[in-house]
Amino acid sequence: SGANRAIDGKRHTFYTEGSLDLHQMFIISERLDGAEIRIGNSLDNNGNDNPRCATITHIPRGNTFTFTCQSGSMEGRYVNVVIPGDNKILTLCEVEVYADPTGDAATLTL
């Protein structure tokens, strides 16, 4: 399955509805722990050098969580979710970004 499924609007886990079937049971590690949400206007380093909005400490398996920037609000064109360090693997099932053009609020749901 491709990265385009991270923004297909589907939060369920049924393959026939566009999600992934692994065809057997696997232990899935938490690949979001330690990830950073970065927001800004720069594409330097693929946008990964933009200011940090929040750090994901832990999202329990099967749950979704909404993050609001630690500083309250941030301005930026690009939103990145990145795990710092070399050879890190990031797995996202669905990403939704909601922003208020007035700058009053911005949230990211994973």
Précis, in short:
This protein has 110 residues and is mainly β. The chain has no helices and 6 strands.
Provide an overview of this structure:
It comes from Neogobius melanostomus. InterPro entries: BG_Antigen-Binding_Lectin, FTP1, Galactose-bd-like_sf. The chain is mainly β and 110 residues long. It has one domain. Helix content is 0%, strand content 23%. It is built from no helices and six strands. The chain has strands at 36-40, 52-55, 66-68, 78-82, 96-99, 106-109. Strands 2-1-4 form a three-stranded antiparallel sheet, with no helix packed on it. Strands 3-6-5 form a three-stranded antiparallel sheet, with no helix packed on it. A hairpin with a 6-residue loop joins strand 5 (96-99) and strand 6 (106-109). The two termini are 18 Å apart.
